[in-house]
Structure formats: structure tokens, C-alpha cells
Amino acid sequence: EAGVVQSPRYKIIEKKQPVAFWCNPISGHNTLYWYRQNLGQGPELLIRYENEEAVDDSQLPKDRFSAERLKGVDSTLKIQPAELGDSAVYLCASSPGTGGRGNTGELFFGEGSRLTVL
Amino acid sequence: DAKTTQPPSMDCAEGRAANLPCNHSTISGNEYVYWYRQIHSQGPQYIIHGLKNNETNEMASLIITEDRKSSTLILPHATLRDTAVYYCIVRVDSWGKLQFGAGTQVVVTP
Fold this sequence. Notes:
The complex is a heterodimer of chains A (118) and B (110). Chain A is mostly beta strands and 118 residues long. Chain A has strands at residues 5-7, 10-13, 19-24, 31-37, 44-50, 53-56, 65-68, 75-79, 88-95, 108-109, 113-117. In chain A, a hairpin with a 2-residue loop joins β5 (44-50) and β6 (53-56). Chain A is globular, with a radius of gyration of 14 Å. The termini of chain B are far apart. Chain B is an all-beta fold.
């Protein structure tokens, strides 16, 4: 079974340029997460989707960040314009969804997209 | 969600047991203890979780104290591939927010 797929794996851009990251979750997983991980720190939740609805975007910097999950499957995270402080690894994760018998609440993470802003 | 405290780093000899401590003194009755690990350049990976009872799976064992204010993750026979950052997280139910701290950097040496 394929895991969470993210692209690109690496991206280098100059500040003020736009950038987009794509995530394809595990088939059948209703819940999708975007995390940001700065160097030497743990991942920080940016946004969580239940199907196509963003149910927690309180940590998403809405002035420059946007995300969408059309049709409740794959998702795109965009930054426009990028700033130097946006350099980080952007992680996507998915899980089967809330509740349900035997649902351990395990999140399955992709390998991440490493962004460098020059 | 309750905050957790972990040592920033620890070393372990290959083949020996690694015991990773975690303090969560403000944990609530409905909060679970989750452990994830992150190998370099990879996304975090789920290890184990528990509420009150000790738990064991093919990767590790989780020992939770009776008052639930602390727990220990045990890797019974550490290998070089267990070198990673280990995160202890407390979380409300299986769909509560998963908030990562800084974790413990574990280095397994030959």
C-alpha cells in the first residue's frame, strides 16, 4: 500500500516568490494534516482537514499561506510571497478519520518537502 | 493538551534496552500518551500509545505510572536504526490535536 506522497521533495526559491506543495494521502483517509518543522524543533500543526473541510486552521498564517483540499483527496499548500523565515520542512500526514472502532489515532506522515528561501 | 517534558538527548549501546522517560504531570483523565519517532530526513512514525495500562507491540513497550504523571518508552534491544528523535505527546482521544515538543535525540552506538 502506498504511503503519503509529497512533492516536491526539495525546493529552493528567492524571497517574495510563490511556492506550492502537493500531498496525496493514503487512499481512504478522510483526515489530512499539514505541519511545518523548523530546524531542531518538532513539527507544528498548520491546518487539519476532515474531507474537504478545514476544521482547524488556527495556526495557519493566513496573510501569506493558503491551503485547499478539493474533492477531499489530495491537497495543496501555497505560500505567496515566501519570506526567509518560511525555510522549513513542510510535512503532510493523513489518518483514517475521527472515531471508529479500533481507530488508534495514528497519523501517517509523508517524507516532507524541504523549502529553502534565499 | 498537557505539556510533556523529555530529556534533550540520550545515548544507548546497541543491543541494550533504551529507556526513554517523559513527564506529563498535568495530564487529564481523558488524555492518552502517544510516542512517535523521527529518523533523519523522514516524517514522524507512530510507535505506541496508551491511557492507563502498560502497552507492548512489536516496536516497543510503554510503561505508564499509576498516577499517570510520567511514562517510559522502552526499546528492548536497541539497534543502530533506532537512532532518531523520539516524541512523547499527550492527546485527547484518538482524534485530538497532535502537538509535538522538541523530543529526545537518541543515538545508538555500536
